[in-house]
Amino acid sequence: MTQNPELHIWFLPADGEALAVKSSDFESLESAVTALSEALEQGRTLRFQLTGPEDTETGIALVNFANVVAVKVWPESVKGADHGQYL
User: Fold this and answer.
1) DSSP states of 35-75
2) Each residue's pLDDT tens digit, 7-47
3) Helix H or strand E encompassing 31
4) pLDDT confidence bin for 82, thresholds 50/70/90
5) What residue ranges do the domains of the chain occupy?
6) Strand order in 68-75's β-sheet?
């Protein structure tokens, strides 16, 4: 069974601080971009299972896209702020 890739997702809310999460909720970078774009266009709320080191507990983030003005997503294998795709 193939594991989903670990993706970094950065949200910029209309008001407040930016939120960055790591998630394995999506089968691929392309499926993440599609799902996040649709949520952004429709103002939906998405639930993310957060990932972390194996020895730490993970959590859940609920993101209301009605309050998000920008999203950036990139795979874990890409390092640096200049990489990724903004939605």
Assistant:
1) HHHHHHHHT-EEEEEB---TTS---EEEEEGGGEEEEEEEE
2) 999 999 999 998 888 888 999 999 999 999 999 999 999 99
3) helix 29-42
4) low
5) 7-86
6) 19-23, 7-13, 68-75, 85-86
